[in-house]
Amino acid sequence: MKVDGKHYRSIWLGSDGWSVCAIDQRRLPHEFVVAKITTCEEAADAIRGMLVRGAPLIGATAAFGMALGMRDDRSDPGIDRAYEMLIATRPTAINLKWALDTMSTMLRRLAPSERRDAAYARAVDIAGEDVTINRGIASHGLALIEAAAARKKPGEAVNVLTHCNAGWLATVDWGTATAPIYLAHDSGIPIHVWVDETRPRNQGASLTAWELGHHGVAHTVIPDNTGGHLMQHGMVDLAIVGTDRVAANGDVCNKIGTYLKALAAHDNGVPFYVALPSPTIDFAVAEGRQIPIEQRSAQEVTEMTGRTSDGRIETVRIVPPGSPVANYGFDVTPARLVTGLITERGVLQADGAALAAAFPERARPTNY
């Protein structure tokens, strides 16, 4: 997508042909910085420290991390070390494991002398596949926005509520939840996005608002607790969110606070959609309650970083010293609250049968 008129992906192979470049999302929206990743350890640190984040981008970064690992050690133990280092970084997003399993399986079939070049080629393919998948999500989600637009008065904007950042910064390009929004905007459909700030890391206020603004999409940042009020007053036409893992039965695990938005949408008759690439589906997990929920540092809650009036970037404490903090990174929205799952193969019902029918090559035999 565009930054100051120039197209960027969130991650790409460096001009030297072996290092990896990624937008440092910790520095946004105050600074645009491109980080250079040169080792598997640095790739793991980038994922763990949230230099990169978002389930699809985590998967792509892990694939590049495996390729960097093959520069140092192409042996079977070298594959194991790279895999274990990267898999330990983030427990909730299933794309991480999918990408690492894909890379590991492919590499073990090759002679050590072939592994480095093959790893780079496959990592580049995984990144490219993510872009293609998200473009498919955009096309299928566009139909939902077009239908909403048809119910509006001429020139009246379609109002979409989103949560956290499921934009191009969370993927390699296009995004998941934002992909239909960008395509609708580029197609000339009047559209406006309600952007949840998404505490505690403010990924909506910091990232979604930043990328929507750079692309010229009308948007308004709102406190996390505002969505229900907007829905009660008919100010939301549909909600579209992303997800870090979808269970085999259609339960959706996404950024903390998503469940509350789904409940409000259900109570007010607002369609609630989840946009996801197929690698985010975990057919090995029967239901959402089995998904491990990451608990993150208390510091994310106790401190906030921003730009002062004189231009300095400062971090300040907002919680009294000694107050305990719980910081659950994700929650699970039951499939019954999801209007539909927007995938690269169409808009599906949020249930096991629909998921298995759409992706039979990945589904496990079961009694849906």
Automatic annotation (TrEMBL):
Coiled-coil ranges (or none): none
Catalytic activity: 5-(methylsulfanyl)-alpha-D-ribose 1-phosphate = 5-(methylsulfanyl)-D-ribulose 1-phosphate
EC number(s) reported in the record: 5.3.1.23
Species, as recorded: Bradyrhizobium oligotrophicum S58
Pfam families on file: IF-2B (PF01008)
Gene3D superfamilies per the UniProt record, alphabetical: translation initiation factor eif-2b, domain 1, Translation initiation factor eif-2b, domain 2
GO biological process: L-methionine salvage from methylthioadenosine
Binding-site residues, substrate: 53-55, 90, 203, 254-255
Residues of the active site: 244
Top-level enzyme category: isomerase
Record-linked SUPFAM superfamilies: NagB/RpiA/CoA transferase-like
Annotated site residues (Transition state stabilizer) in this chain: 164
Domain of life: Bacteria
Function: Catalyzes the interconversion of methylthioribose-1-phosphate (MTR-1-P) into methylthioribulose-1-phosphate (MTRu-1-P).
Protein known as: Methylthioribose-1-phosphate isomerase
GO terms for MF: S-methyl-5-thioribose-1-phosphate isomerase activity
HAMAP family reported in the protein's UniProt record: Salvage_MtnA (MF_01678)
Family per record: Belongs to the EIF-2B alpha/beta/delta subunits family. MtnA subfamily.
Pathway listed: Amino-acid biosynthesis; L-methionine biosynthesis via salvage pathway; L-methionine from S-methyl-5-thio-alpha-D-ribose 1-phosphate: step 1/6
The entry's keywords: Amino-acid biosynthesis, Cytoplasm, Isomerase, Methionine biosynthesis
